[in-house]
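Re-run with default settings, no changes from the original entry. Doing this only to confirm the output is reproducible before filing.
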Amino acid sequence: MKNKKSYSKKYFGTDGIRGRANSKKMNAALALKIGMASAKLFTKGKQKHFALIGKDTRLSNYTIEPALTSGFLSMGMNVYLTGPLPTPGVASLVSSMRCDVGVMISASHNEYIDIGIKIFCPSGAKLSDEQEIELEKLIDNSDLQLVKSENLGRAKRIDDAGGRYIEYLKSRISSSFRLDGLKIVIDCANGAAYKAAPKLFRSLGAKVFVIGNKPNGFNINKDCGSTFPKKIQNAVIKNKANLGISLDGDADRIIMCDEKGVIIDGDQIIAALALEWKKKKILRGGVIGTLMSNYGLEDFLKKKKIKFIRSKVGDRYVKEMMQKYKFNLGGEQSGHIILGKFATTGDGLLVSLEIVKFLDKKTRASIFFNVFKKTPQILKNINYRNDKILKDKKVLKSIKLAKKLIEGQGRILVRKSGTEPKIRVMGESENKKLLNHCIKLIIKKLN
């Protein structure tokens, strides 16, 4: 049998389609084509079909949302518009409202100058690699047949989308569950969860201190949110809070902070949940991490006799591996954490609800999360202009040398980001001097 010709993706990265807003790579004209192609891909039969579109708080959404909507309508699909809503909210509503396709307009943790489009299947899951390839071919197909004028779709705004998402989250906990007496700091990153997050926790009785809840189109993720956790550190200490929760622009990532102001990353959250779930006999199979997961997490889980498997970077790859091995917990160091029994994608608010279940006057956050020691890790993000930089002979030689030097004492991982124009250089080792030397060898050739 002949090998199938390999296909290099033109539009999709590790998490949807992204690019600089209003540039050749991401603009309203492309969004129109994506809407049309998505409608074509998910139209099955002659019945009326529905698309659901959510967004974060970027200024550029005002160009992408109507273009996507027009694309769907021109192919005969009706469209529900949710307004600002977290990515996991879109995923949950696509399924509960029985839509044929869902779209989230967001560049996640990136600043406002970038924009992205994430697409969901009827089940609320992100597209597989095969579906992304099929969709890309449809995007570039100039012969897509528009429907007749009498068959055009209609668009409708869903004013209570945020409320529906909150009810979905609360349905995952006991109706008697309360957070009275708990003080929580929430950083909404001036993003999609700026209304839903504080409303959820206040409705459960917590005293909530909110930051990053005044979006203006330009300030999403700017010096706030999960990529800038210093804000929750300061706010937790200032307000003597029990816990800090820091979300990213579309609220599918979560970074936390204990009552002492110590930052808790995704690996530490996963470790604490895995241990607690194992005690309660609700952990199924084991844990899926990624190539970026800290070795300390892997070693900890091994000692606790919990299986650990690494996937490619990206929460959809984590979810695919969870389904393959029938595990119900997985995630990334960056804060994408999937509670497999409930979610199809990372969900910062769902994860935070699961965490607060275990916190009370006796169990402080600093105790709950203190379960393993991280292996010293260095992560450097290097901006690049040359798209083929990782094929450069000098760069390849430096990576090979660094890996040879650290062999037996740690590991080196160099990869191109799938969400922004950066090369991620990550290294781990107890030998900090050697680790620094190896990282510098590679960075020198990348600059």
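The mean pLDDT is 94. The first strand starts at residue 17 and ends at 20.
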